[in-house]
Specification:
It is built from 17 helices and no strands. The chain is an all-alpha fold. It has a single domain, classed as Amino acid/polyamine transporter I (Up-down Bundle), CATH 1.20.1740.
């Protein structure tokens, strides 16, 4: 087996040109990535839906199972990122493991997913703010796109500047979110649940593993961990990436698993183990609101409502930064216009790619507003599409990790890390991917026509990337050789 030189923990790997600049540490990277998960949105908006349509009382186990699957994937994933210290995230790793054609196709599809989260969340943010201003603050009733424009402007400005500034903003919002969630969980625990008799661990019993639709619960749970993988995308902007990136990746998964599993357990206890599924089915949004207000009072409920807004902005900002870096990397490889790989002299940021990302999102949302598309339906469709893409890309990357590390892993290519973990992860991810394909119409809002159109877009973009790589190989080999930040 070919030996590979592994950078030491204190060594910064050689950087490609052009390259970004930054000095993010362990916690800043965690905050930048964890914000993409939107913990408050998951707790308030998603957990009741999972109880209603997913694994029912077994929802905490769905989150634990999903976290373990992604942790198994991350064992080989983070080791490959050490052996192959290239920027570009999934785009670079898949290229190295499966070739430039598959790599470019995957890069295009990954870019679509992150851009979809960025551009698609403005409508949700606009709706949430509009409801707060109109119904709670008795303010003016303005269209969703007015508030969406405020999110767009703020994320565009912060995304243009150095990444540490975004990391500080995301850290502030994320800390506030987690504080509110922990307060809720503690209040339910201290008060002993719905009847005050103590917290029941019955939802963790094997008897409830297959309550409801366990397969759908697992699918939804995996989607709630989105973003853990982008730690490798920020490697040029992280100090000591060899040490920080693996730790941050596993920390994000562990924190998310703990928050989501514990909060769903407390939610079940807060309404009663024997009543929670029925109450969630009757009114998923109202069930969580009732739970929070019952145990935390109106103050905690109002703070949680505000945190949903800040959580939404954190998603937008994190997704903007991720998208801009995908644009930057594809431009650095001469796939996208060269100008987009410019690095700001003072901020070290991909400022042109950032502006291009903001501009594309503005155009898309303007079209949605002008055509009068239901903003919530648009948000649902886009987020369903991105969930499907995330599963697909992670599965492909898992295969790439297995193949690459067996060939080039050197001392890091242990049987456990590069054979056992990828195979176990492939089983879990493969099941989730099949479920996503079967349930895709439901994920995008229930329309078979919309589902077919979005699947066509995903598949078409992948084929476009593969075709483009093959054209470059025959006509522009100098560009072909650069694909995947090679």
């Amino acid at each position: 087996m070919m030996e590979t030189t592994i950078p030491t923990a204190t060594e910064r790997p050689p950087q490609s040109k052009p390259h970004l600049k930054g000095n993010m540490g362990f916690f800043q990277l965690i905050f930048s990535v964890m914000a993409y998960n939107a913990p408050m949105v998951v707790v308030i908006g998603v957990i009741p839906i999972m109880v209603m349509e997913g694994a029912g009382l077994g929802t905490p186990l769905s989150f634990i199972g999903a976290g373990l699957i992604l942790a198994l994937f991350s064992v080989g994933f983070t080791r490959m990122a050490r052996v192959l210290p290239n920027p570009g995230g999934f785009y670079a790793l898949i290229t190295a493991g499966l070739g430039r054609a598959v790599g470019l196709g995957s890069g295009f599809v990954a870019l679509l997913a992150y851009f979809g989260v960025y551009a698609g969340t403005f409508s949700f943010g606009g709706i949430v703010v509009s409801e707060l201003v109109t119904n709670t603050l008795n303010g003016p009733e303005l269209p969703w796109y007015v508030w969406g424009a405020a999110f767009w402007l703020a994320s565009g400005v912060l995304g243009y500047l150095k990444v540490e500034l975004s990391a500080k903003v995301l850290a502030l919002f994320l800390f506030a979110e987690i504080l509110i969630i922990v307060a809720y969980d503690l209040l339910v625990f201290v008060n002993g649940g719905a009847d005050g008799s103590g917290i029941s661990l019955e939802p963790l019993s094997p008897a409830h593993w297959f309550d409801g639709n366990f397969s759908l619960g697992l699918l939804l749970a995996i989607g709630m961990y989105g973003g853990f993988e982008v730690t490798v995308l920020f490697r040029e902007e992280v100090r000591n990436p060899v040490r920080v990136i693996p730790r941050a990746t596993f920390a994000v998964i562990a924190i998310a698993m703990t928050i989501y599993a514990l909060s769903s357990l407390m939610f079940a206890n807060s309404l009663g183990i024997d009543k929670v599924v029925g109450l969630a089915q009757a009114d998923p949004t109202g069930a969580m609101n009732t739970s929070i207000e019952s145990f935390g009072g109106s103050l905690l409920f109002e703070l949680a409502t505000v945190m949903v807004i800040t959580s939404t902005f954190a998603v937008i900002l994190a997704a903007h930064n991720i998208t801009a870096r995908y644009v930057f990397n594809l431009s650095a490889d001469k796939i996208l216009p060269k100008r987009m790989s410019s690095v700001h002299k003072r901020h070290g940021s991909p400022h042109v790619a950032s502006v291009a990302t903001s501009g594309a999102a503005l155009v898309l949302n303007a079209v949605i507003a002008v055509l009068g598309v239901d903003p919530l339906a648009f948000y649902t469709a886009v987020l369903g599409m991105t969930s499907m893409i995330a599963l697909l890309i992670i599965f492909i990357c898992n295969v790439a990790v297995f193949l690459y590390m067996r060939r080039n892993g050197g001392q890091l290519a242990s049987t456990w890390a590069t054979v056992v973990c990828p195979i176990l992860a492939a089983v879990g991810l493969g099941i989730a991917l099949v479920l996503a394909a079967i349930n895709f119409p439901m994920l995008v809002g229930g329309s078979n026509e919309v589902a077919a159109a979005l699947l066509t877009v995903i598949f078409g973009l992948f084929v476009l990337g593969v075709a483009a790589a093959l054209v470059y190989r025959s006509r522009k080999p100098h560009i072909y050789s650069c694909i995947g930040r090679q």
